[in-house]
Design brief:
The structure is a single chain. The protein is an alpha/beta fold. Helix content is 50%, strand content 12%. It has eleven helices and four strands. Helix 2 links the parallel strand 1 and strand 2. Helix 9 crosses helix 11. The relative contact order is 0.18.
Length: 171
């Protein structure tokens, strides 16, 4: 993170809670200042997976679907430990599986992701809920959105994501 602040023109993490985002953003900004750079020259971005539906209850229900939980497998074992659970793959999916060759193992591992982890780490709800949650990331200048719920409940995803985008642009 310090190197990002010293030389990079942007920071683009994936799936951070607001507290971790804030701590890491501050580290990047402090490093920029220490290197004689303005933090304003660094684009703060984040790749955010969401589950957005017409009702919050529909979004919450989708959080238990393996297709929605699957990206959590990319998180490190330390994140699973916070939920008193071993990583279903023993480590990160990026080191363990090739999804095209291990589909059933991936699905089984996704089912083993704690429901509480999915609820806590995947932004979810209605369009308004999702916008409100994303706006908590102070200083976020760019967002890449992906609706994980569309894999479990197709229909309407693009329209909802476009509405979220418009609302975020309005501030």
């Amino acid at each position: 993170l310090r190197l990002t602040g010293e030389v990079a023109d942007g920071w683009f993490p994936w799936t951070l809670d607001v507290e971790t985002w804030t701590r890491c953003r501050d580290t990047v900004n402090e490093a920029a200042l220490a290197a004689g750079r303005s933090p304003a020259t660094i684009t703060m971005a984040m790749s955010i997976d969401v589950v957005v539906q017409d009702t919050a209850a529909e979004a919450r229900a989708l959080l238990t679907h393996p297709a929605v939980k699957q990206p959590c497998l990319l998180l490190p074992p330390s994140t699973f430990a916070r939920y008193h659970s071993p990583h279903p793959l023993g480590g990160s999916a990026t080191h363990t599986l090739i999804p095209t060759l291990a589909g059933s193992a991936l699905a089984d591992a996704a089912r083993a992701v704690p429901d509480a982890m999915a609820r806590d780490l995947i932004i979810h709800g209605t369009v308004d809920d999702v916008v409100e949650q994303i706006q908590r990331y102070d200083g976020l200048g760019h967002v890449r959105l992906s609706d994980l719920g569309s894999a479990a409940a197709p229909g309407g995803s693009v329209d909802r994501l476009l509405t979220i985008t418009r609302e975020l642009q309005r501030g």
